[in-house]
Structure formats: structure tokens, C-alpha cells
Amino acid sequence: MPQPTIDEVIEKIQATAAQLTQADAQSVSMSPDTYLWGGPPGEASLDLDSLALLELLVLLEEEQGLTMPDIDELDVRPGAAYTVRRLSELYVAHASPVS
Amino acid sequence: MVVDDHAVTYQELEGWAQALARHFLAAGVAQRERVVVVLPNSAALVATAFAVSSVGAVFVLVDPSLGEDELTGVLVAEQPKAVVVDAWVLQSAAVARALAAWRATAPDAVVVDDVPAIARAGRGDAPAGWPPGPRASPDDPAGVFLTSGTGGVPRGVVHTHRSLCSGFEAMKRKLHEFFRGSPLDATRRMLLMLRRYRRQVLRPPWRPRVWLTPVPLSSITGFTFVLQCLLLGQTFVTMRTFHPRRALQLIERHRVSFLALTPTLVDLMLRLRDVDQYDLSSLFVVGLGASPARPELVARARTRFDCAVVVGYGSTELGGGVLATDLLDPVEAQVSTVGRPFPGAEVRIVDDNRREVAAGVVGELACRTPGLMAGYSAGGVAAVDEDGWYYSSDLAVRDGDGLVRVLGRKDDLIIRAGKKVYPSEVERVIAACPHVREAAVVGAPGPRGEDRICAYVVPEPDGTPDVTDIRAACRTQLAAYKAPEAVFLVDALPTTTAQAKVHRAVLRADAQTRLTPHIKEAP
């Protein structure tokens, strides 16, 4: 299975995160720069907590074939932040697709 | 003790605790004074708790993910003499700001930000006169564990040395009871155990058992688990932050026997595509607790882990677990009940007048246990009667064999990530946002059994609240897991006809309807 491009991963994350969040018409649009977790207050964010972030990563593995990054690659310090784009870069840089 | 892949021996752990205890004494930490500990799962957390106890002081364990306001609330309420943090925790802006504000008001207080450095500096000091501080009695306060309060500020639950050790005592009694009765009875039970768990039971008795939990050691569940493991002289494995694949790797690498975690975490582990590639044959018992475990999940865990899965029930106020299924219970009971009370604990199901109801009748679960808290740190009313019965607000039913099934919550508590979220604390934050007339927060059951937090917001006539602002306010003022997943703007909240209270059942049903179609439509 070839390594996906960042754009492909962004698309997969957007589709998968939509399952995880909700149908709230008021929610922010999910651009590549939307914070999935831990973004600064006031920025476009889906406000996932760390558990929901893990749920997203497992869904990406289950449904999109993307092996979730290892804990050493994931920066889960308090205050760390992930946008859709940053997570995609992490996948492309470190994670290999599940065979 | 092993944290991720870093091992600390018992001797090292004791050395750390002794060095820290001397440091606390030198800093003037006195008997019964509070020491707030804001650390991730680590040897430093365990050593600090032991050090604080050994000088007769009281540790207050705080989850590093608390929001700034919540941590400030804890510091104001507990008035600690010292606060223990580390570099990892200080990277959180919320912790750093709360700590800076507190230090400005408490110039004499002590901040310890590098436990290993203090341990290294104190290494080699003469260990004479241990423990170094005033000797505490079993009924002195030992620790404070935080639980979400209805007022929106985490409530400190005080436990004594005795109540914290009650789980260990119960475990010893359970082991003793296994061999109760005639030698023939005990032999029958042993044979049954061998038949059901042959591989796991038959192992070299001299090899230490390895216990693993990824749940925060700042919780009563995590702390009593590590305490029991260390009191038995076993090896304890934990993780600073949970990662499902890393948890599987740790089980394989360290040949873990006992695994304790929440249903949500075990679900994440079981859904990994390569879960079958790990050697998990060392597992003997997987314990699930802190939130309801779906029978389907318990059955799946039993099959995949090929070991016993026990489901427990407890709370911070009760000092951890008070009920659990047994290794010899029928499989049906193991997957669908929370079992029977631990030795020393009593349970009854009562009606609204607190009279015990018959088997098969639904009522409120009441518990009496040696693990019961000493009280709330800030005082206040606890649901404990004069005979020591704690009323849980959980609805349950007991069958003819004494097995208890928990059906749901009597109040409107939301369980998210195994932690309690009271709607009022989230509503208070939302109600303070601009253009919000009123708000109601409910938990809607998600597809994996986890509550999803939904906020209903009624705008002021003069404007529309900004949902982004509402989310930002929740994220800055509350722990991340308390932030609503969905925010719905509505014209009015449904109310009950009798008392004009918000009709939360209607909102819960509405939230479920709003969320479900979207999940199905998703690609």
C-alpha cells in the first residue's frame, strides 16, 4: 500500500472527524488549519479531548487504513495542539499504512 | 514500578520518598498540612504520596488536565503548604498560570518541580529515624481525591490511611474466603479455577505478578490499584499518557497478569487492526470500572484476551471499588452485572424512603464500606446516613443470587472518559457567555456507550451567542473532557409541567436524534 500524500490524509481526517463530532450547523468549518485538539481559545477548533483524539486515530486506522502514530511521535503534553494539517504531516512522516 | 519503559526498583522508590520527606520537613511542611500533587502517572507521583504520608501531611492528587479555574479552585480550597509539579506539567499554560497566581498569594509556600533531582541530591543521607515526621494514626487523613462538584468546582474527598488500605484488606479477605469451608469445597473451587483459567493459574509461583493500569494515578481507582500492587510486592506498570497500541506492547513486553482500565480504553485497544499480533497470553484478569461496561464489550474482551474479565463498581467517595464480579461467576453474570460486594462491604437497594426493596425491584444503590471517605475537604453535605450508608444516586437491581446490575443514573450525571461531569458546572460557564439567556447540558449516549456532552443554549432577545466563544470559554475554564461536543441554539428549553424544571429526558432524546443521522450519513 503506497504512502498517502498529505492532501489525501487531510481528506481522510476531515471525513473521519466528521463522524466523531456532530451535525451541529453552528460548528466551525473544518479546514486543514482547524484545531482538532488543544488549540488556542478562539481559533477554529473541534475541541476534541485527548480521548476523542484517540478515538479519531483508531477510526482512521479502522476505516482508512492509517496506522496511528506511536506515542513517541504523538505530542500529547498538556497544552500541545494539533490541526488537521499537523496530524496529516505526522501520518505521512512517521506512520505507515496498515498492510 | 515501570512507567512506559523506565523501571524504578522498590529500593529506589523508597529512597525517593525518604529524600522528598526530608525535603518537605526542611521546608516546614507540618502534620495535616496539604501538599497538592499535579503530576502525570510517574514514580515521582507515588514517591511523593509516600513522602507526604511519612511526614504526617496530606496529599491532594490533581489530574494535570484540569483547567486553570479548576486548579485555582483546588489551590484556594486546600491552601497547600507545597505544590509538586514537573516540567511536563508546567508546559500546560493553564497549570503555569494557576500556579503563578497562587504563588503571588502564598509567598511562603513551596513549589517542588523536579522530584528526581531532589531524590538524587538526598541520596546517601543517613536513613535514620524513619519515618521522619510525626507518626500518623490509621484514622488520620491521608489523601484528598478530586471529584466533580455540583457547584462546578472539583470537590476534595478526604480519605484516611485506613480507608485507602481497605481495598487491600478486602483483597486479602477474598483470597482467604476462597479457601473457606471444607477442604473438599476448596478443592472443588480450585479445580474449577484450573478448568477455566488453566494457562494463567499454572505458572511459577515465585515469579512476581505484573499489574498494569493506564488510568490516572491521581484517581482513587488508579491510586488504590498501585497501592495494592506495591503492598503485595508485585511489579506495577503504567503509562504517562494512554495509547492503545503502547498498552498492548507493554502487556506483551512485561508479561502483564492484571490489567485495570475503563471500558472506553479497552474498546480502543480491541479495535486496533493488529491486536491479534500481540502475545497477550500472560493476562489473567482484566478489570473494568469507572463507567458502565456494555455486555458486548465485556464478551469481546473475554474472547480476545482469553482471560477473566471482571467488572467493578465504586466511586471516589467509597474509596474505589465496592462490588465486582468473581472469577468463578457464571459467564453471563460476568458480562452483565457488577457482581457482589467485596468482603467487608455491604450493599442494598433502597426505595425513595431508603427502605430496602426485594430482589428484582429497581431502587437506589446504597453501600456501607470501610473504604468510605472521611468527608469532603470543604465540608458540605454528603449522602451518608448516621449508620454509615452512602447513597449513590445510581439505580440498580439485585437478582436472587445477590448479583447486582447497575441500570443508570438517578441524577443527570454525565460520564465522559470514565470521569463525572455535572451539567451544572458546564451550564455555569456557558450561561456567563455573551447573549446567552439560559443553557442546559445533557449527556447523549454515543455509539460506543460513552456519553457525549450536548449543550442547549437559548439566546438573549438582543443577540445571538457565538458558538465558537462558548466552546472557547468551556475549554479555558473547564477540563477538556467537560467541553460540549455539540452546541445547539434553541428558542426555548423544554420544561416539566409540574415544577417548570428543564426536562432533561426530552433534551437527551433530542440530542440523540440530532447526532445519530449524521453518523450514518458520514462517508
Key attributes of the depicted protein:
heterodimer, A: mainly alpha, two-stranded antiparallel sheet, 3 helices, 5% strand, globular, B: 523 residues, alpha/beta, Rossmann fold, nine-stranded mixed beta sheet, 16 helices, 36% helix, disordered C terminus
Architecture overview:
The complex is a heterodimer of chains A (99) and B (523). Helices cover 41% and strands 5% of the residues of chain A. Chain A is mainly alpha-helical and 99 residues long. Chain A has one domain (6-15, 33-94). The longest helix of chain A is centred in the first third of the chain and has 15 residues, at 6-20. Chain B has 16 helices and 25 strands. Chain B is globular. The A-B interface holds A 15, 18-19, 21-24, 26-28, 37-38, 41-42, 44-45, 47, 49-52, 54-55, 58, 61-62, 67-68, 70-71, 74, 76-80, 98 and B 4, 64-65, 88-89, 91-95, 239, 241-246, 264, 268, 271-274, 416-417, 448, 452, 454, 467-469, 471-476, 480-481, 483, 485-489, 514-515, 517-519, 522-523.
Mean pLDDT of chain B: 87
**What is the correct CATH architecture of the largest domain in chain B?**
3-Layer(aba) Sandwich
Number of domains of chain A: 1
Q: Could you give me the name of the CATH homologous superfamily of the largest domain in chain B?
A: ANL, N-terminal domain
Multimer state? heterodimer
Global morphology of chain B: globular
Radius of gyration of chain A: 13 Å
Q: What structural class is derived from the secondary structure elements of chain B?
A: alpha/beta
What is the count of DSSP helices of chain B, taking H or I runs of 4+ residues? 16
Main sheet summary of chain A: 2 strands, antiparallel
Can you give me a brief rundown of this structure?
Chain A has 99 residues and is mainly alpha-helical.
